Amino acid sequence: MSKKETVISKARLSDGAVKELRLEVSVDVPRELWQIQLNDFEEDVVCFRETDLYKAMQALREYLEAKGCQLLCAGARPDVAPSGMSRSMGGGREAYVMHLGKQATELIDIFAYAAPAVVGTVQEQREYFQAWIASLGA
Question: What's the CA gap between 81 and 88, in Å, rounded?
């Protein structure tokens, strides 16, 4: 069984209020899938298991988005995505901030707080990533 850490994150609810969320997050390379467990949100405990933490966070975000909520962390910014090496070596816990037309160099923890004004939907994040790739001429 993999080791876990408790991460306190925030989410903006459908009514605009901000609520703290308690997440149990895989912190080492698991034999099974990486996991984020959302505790005590609407009285439920929900687990998201994926091949890396970034993908697990996207699954968590899609779950929250379906309820009209947004996760307020760096991994929810449209301009943030992990590299393949970050995903394979560290489970995608660290990701790059991308600027159109430039190689990404700034690494951040996907669980670090991000203000509501800078987060987006999972779809916006996917679209930004594709635009960033295109902007590099790849």
Answer: 13
Contacts 24+ apart (CB under 8 A), 80-87: 80/108, 80/110, 80/125, 81/54, 81/125, 81/129, 81/132, 82/52, 82/54, 82/110, 87/51, 87/52, 87/54
Average pLDDT over residues 40-53: 86
Record the tokens describing residue 70, joined without a space.
């947004």
> pTM (2 decimals)?
0.91
| Residues 53 and 59: beta-carbon distance below 8 Å | no
Distance CA 79, CA 49 (A): 23
Its domain, for residue 32, covers 4-135
Phi-psi region of 99 (alpha: psi -120 to 50; beta: other; left: phi over 0): beta
Give the pair of three-digit tokens for residue 32: 């099974």
- Domain count of the fold of the chain: 1
Nearest to 80 by CA among 49, 38, 111: 111
Residues in the chain: 138
Q: What is the pLDDT of residues 100-109, one digit of tens each?
A: 999 999 999 9
